[in-house]
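Note to self: the last two entries modelled the partners one at a time, which told us nothing about the interface. This time every component goes in together.
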Amino acid sequence: MTDQNHIIKLTAAEIAENIASGVLTAVEVTEAHLARIEAVDEKVHAFLHVDREGALAQARAVDEKRARGEKLGPLAGVPLALKDIFTTEGVPTTVGSKILEGWIPPYDATVTKRLKAADVVILGKTNMDEFAMGSSTENSAYGPTGNPWDLTRIPGGSGGGSSASLASYEAPLAIGTDTGGSIRQPAAVTGTVGVKPTYGGVSRYGMVAFSSSLDQGGPCARTVLDAALLHEVIAGHDPLDSTSIDAPVPAVVEAARNGSVQGMRVGVVKQFRGEHYQAGVMQRFDESVELLKSLGAEVVEIDCPSFDLGLSAYYLIAPSECSSNLARFDAMRYGLRVGDDGTKSAEDVTALTREAGFGDEVKRRVMLGTYALSSGYYDAYYGSAQKVRTLITRDFEKAFEQVDVIVSPTTPTTAFPIGERADDPMAMYLADLCTIPTNLAGNAAMSLPCGLAPEDGLPVGLQIIAPAMKDDRLYKVGAAVEAAFMEKWGHPLLEEAPSL
Amino acid sequence: MTVTTTPDLVPYEDALATYDPVMGLEVHVELGTKTKMFCGCSTTLGADANTQTCPTCLGLPGALPVVNEIGVESAIKIGLALHCEIAEWCRFARKNYFYPDMPKNFQTSQYDEPIAFNGYLDVQLEDGEVFRVEIERAHMEEDTGKSLHVGGATGRIHGASHSLLDYNRAGIPLIEIVTKPIEGAGERAPEVAKAYVAELRELIKALGVSEARMEQGQMRCDVNLSLRPHGRQKFGTRSETKNVNSLRSVERAARYEIQRHAAVLGAGGTIIQETRHFHEEDGSTTSGRVKEEAEDYRYFPEPDLVPVAPSREWVEALRAELPELPLAQRNRLREEWGVSAHDMQSILNAGAIGPIVATINAGADAVSARKWWMGELARNANEQAVDLGSLPITPEHVARVSALVTAGELNDKLARQVIDGVLKGEGTPDEVVEKRGLKVVSDEGALTAAVEEAIAGNPAIADKIRGGKVAAAGALVGAVMKATRGQADAARVKELILEQLGVEG
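The predicted structure of the combined assembly is written out below.
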């Protein structure tokens, strides 16, 4: 039997290869990861629910398939951590909220279905900010997740459980969702890779909605190639999601296998620097730009004046949509029900349930959104925010006339200490300064590690942004940058993380 | 129970002497699509509670809607038949409000971008006069579920111990058709309201997009009404009488509100903008929710659905396929059948045009088709308070009964019994004839025996006839008919009696 500590350090691509060639069994691989979860998750708290039996059953099925000589998919038998925002038939789905405590969905999300169909082994459901609202995972109703680099710091959010599971070697693959940066910012602060595909690239069916026009599921991994392999499994048109794009998935795996920036024009956004940015983050970013030049890219400064309005527009659009999306949590059909003692009206039961079941940040955003949509305020708030959204989209369009991709820091700072911004929502919102414009415009972006900030020794993320439906460019550039850094560092960045 | 106080009403003529009524009619039509508006669930009525549901129409977390193309097509057909413009691009919108039987706590509807707008519908009044009702818009939306309040009086929420929720109806496609303010109808306003709803119902049925059965809630009407003194331009404050669900009720509700508004205004009071409930029992309305505290629906474009952009080719193809519109059809049929405008109006109000035409198409002659549907069957439908179309008899059945009468195999009385049998679920007309043994007795032997028996049993009458009083034969015919349980052909019986007695007929 191969050493479990060896197995958990393998990439998804390596695991799949080993299973296909018979060096490892899927059950062995799954057991190794379950053992790792058992050993460290008490400290990390990446998982809300570990589906031990389900994972082993899936793994056994893969081994049986192989024994029968059936062809295995490119990620068959590879374990994965699924953000607890995707419905899983028969397995609890809480969205990090008390209001769905105990709810067992009767159906699988399209992403869940595709993972199962590809024989990816789902280890369990990962922690997240309640309803994906947050940048630190501190808003989870089930307690915070620690950053494996420093357990007293945040792993990013909302998908902190997914990023932490990767950085702590509990899983080689994870799924996140990105409404304003919830895949990319956690990837940046944990030294992992995260991709927000083009809006409509990955089905939202069965992904509990926060802000429908911004939400996008995507792959999280420790390498660019692994992210690409996962991207291909989950992406593609879904007739159950009207906003899903009916077009071929960009060739992301091919791009990840052929990394290059030779002759590419790379944009650096003038607006993405200034007082909110940590010095060490900018230092690593500037070095990354130099690296791109050395690899043959032409770097161009671009002006995107509307990006300064992105955060404001986001905090009108996302709360507005969430105020409507979350209205269904009324204690009538599923989840928590408080005060149903036979004496109270349906309205009272709903009010009591929401009071007990929703956390502060969720209530704050529902109130903000309800206000922004109300008659007499709609034009000034929601209407204006939609106009800003159009302006930001135009800024991108103009930029992409000059460049093939844009790069920026993923998030202005490294991982901050748990509790530091918990009572300062505005400070918390700044974490998404560089990621939000992409959500508003609906195009694609990736975060990958570009070093450690000198002042605190914590990971810094490099963001690559591509036009809509050009997700493959992220992987082409990302793979080139990753390879160059690997050569420079001599090992993956994560190896510098303290052992848990 | 809420205490119902009936306010003083001003006599109708007096109200009209001072005020002009202005009406707005909002009609919801449940489309007859096989599946719901945003998911693949069946729309069949009468299934067990919550068996026709899925994650989408239950509003489960994560579920998403997908637009039913037949729903859009039906909306466009209705829009075209109402002479509307069809939007080149429009969106769904969320109407946010809370109700336990609404799964998502928002209704997916349309707001400022309806699929069809700016049209009209010509409606014909009892005397043949045509009144043009202008259409503001027709838009697509979804129905809610149903609440069943248990333990209280008369199924109302007040006093109920608990409520049960059935989501089978949730997500069934609805088209809401809204008129522009209807002005200038004067004293005929209630009649116009009724004629409009009747005409709309015919239109919907002719388009084949819904059976539009009002008693089953497939078509529901809200009557908005206000009064203004003669000569004034500005509209008065309106009341909105909700869910008026029969043609007669539409007329009564409008009439009642005219009288009530006039009473309030005449006494120096002000009309409160509110919703009102209509009561079938006495034709009154009572106060519902006051609109001043009305909810703010916080409409915004539905982000889960892409815009609907019907191509002009599609719209024109649908326009080309439109059937003959009901008013034109009625004018044609009126000539073909030779009936008066008033009779045609009665046929329309009874919802009998479709069945009669179908019966004629199935081989019956126009007179008998009309006779059955407007007579025996209309009476039956009235007794059960259902639409003609809901009766368990088909135009083919009626045509068959008519054919049996023409062939002399049934007389009128027997035919009515056959219809009764079909309505009672005893089978097709031929099966009912068979089971009930309802053939006209044409066996001459049996008939001759019955005639001889009647003559022998009534010697005095027989003598009268022999003496030339042919009219007295009626009594003997009656006796024979009685003996044959009505199954004999009366004319033939009379011939036989006269033959037997040697008298010329």
